[in-house]
Amino acid sequence: MTEELRRRRQAPPTIPLVSILIAGVGNAWLRDDGFGGEVARRLAGRSLPAGVAVMDAGTGGLDLAYEVMRGYDALVLLDVSKQGGEPGTLYVMEPDEESVPGGIEDGDVINPHAMDPQTVLRFVKSVGAWPGRVVVIACEPADVEEMGWGLSEPVRDAIERAVDLVVETVAELRAGARALP
Fold first, then answer.
1. What is the pTM of this model?
2. Which of 55, 146, 165, 178 would bridge 11 by S-S if both were Cys, CB 3.0 to 4.6 A apart?
3. Is residue 22 part of a domain?
């Protein structure tokens, strides 16, 4: 059993989820920030169950928000996340709707070209389009500060593990299992 899977716990089944969006986010010009897009590209080449869509949202957070608003049972976000682990470490997080700040106040500015996953979720929540479940699969980056093309070796080595983890997560979501937050 992989380290990523040991971090998960299966609770009693809930209603199976059939409409799932997998979305890679990030800027491929910032090296490891291209993780989400690369995982999405690899998944797009695989045979996935009916009702499962894959999108490389890149830095188009507003496009992602609009796609989520079409109505999905679940959203799987692929991104990098600095958690302090070794580069290439994969994390599975499941934010719930209550943990995301509410509405957008008068005067708040949301840049549609720079919407990070948290801002996307905030926007989606503010318009009442929260997907039933949200799972974030993230990778500890080595380099996201300098402009450059291509993933670092540890992040590149984590791509296939991440693809497998997404496939397993989709199967769990479709069966109604819950991931650990």
1. 0.81
2. 178
3. yes
